[in-house]
Amino acid sequence: MRAQRPPRLADQLYDRLLQQITYGKYPEESRLPSEMDLCATFGVSRPVVREALFRLQADGVIISQRGAGSYVRRRPSPELVKLAPIGGLAELVRCMELRSALEGDAACMAATRRSEGDLQAMATALEDMRVAFDARQVGNEADFRFHQAIANACGNDLFVTMLQSLSKQIFDYMRVMRSLALSSAVTRGQQVQREHERIFQAISKQQPEEARDAMREHIHNSRMRTLDASFSPTVARKR
């Protein structure tokens, strides 16, 4: 069996800074240390620091101003650090980036190619997610089955293979995201369920563009819910 590759330095620094922001070492609106200070503190090169800061900015956690430094924009929930795999925060976020492209197109194709059996598999997983939420259970197994049913419905074995190759990362992320939803207001869990229902309805009605948009919006919102404890989606939906 191939040995697991150690985390990249930029990933490790991303995780460390995200943890420090999460636990309040750097409160919202506070300034992070300079790039040179971060290099000295963590014993890494300037390109490593810049990559970690760039990704924190892309995730909306910090904002960088040329000549003024980087400032904390939002603070993730402390539950995120507790729930995520050790050293795995950066990997989970990267997984979301890939899923947005991969699963958006899979949902689009599924809307034109799905069979009644595919729809039944999605509907069963969707109902299992609802039952799990009502029982205050995580429900990540049913969540994964829903997305797997969409990959199966798109009629391209490569989508299924790629989803399976990411199964550990996706399963870990779903566990984290759904656990965070359970530990917050009930409305957050309800929003997660509504997003899945919107994806299902678009596929059921054979609306490919709507299915792609719904999937990408769901994955974007999932990422934002994970990184921002106060996030509430306000995106206007197409009807």
Automatic annotation (TrEMBL):
This is HTH gntR-type domain-containing protein. Gene3D superfamilies: GntR ligand-binding domain-like, Winged helix-like DNA-binding domain superfamily/Winged helix DNA-binding domain. GO terms for molecular function: DNA binding; DNA-binding transcription factor activity. InterPro entries: GntR_C, TF_FadR/GntR_C, Tscrpt_reg_HTH_GntR, WH-like_DNA-bd_sf, WH_DNA-bd_sf. Residues 7-75 form the HTH gntR-type domain. It comes from Achromobacter spanius. The lineage of its organism: Bacteria, Pseudomonadati, Pseudomonadota, Betaproteobacteria, Burkholderiales. Keywords: DNA-binding, Transcription, Transcription regulation.
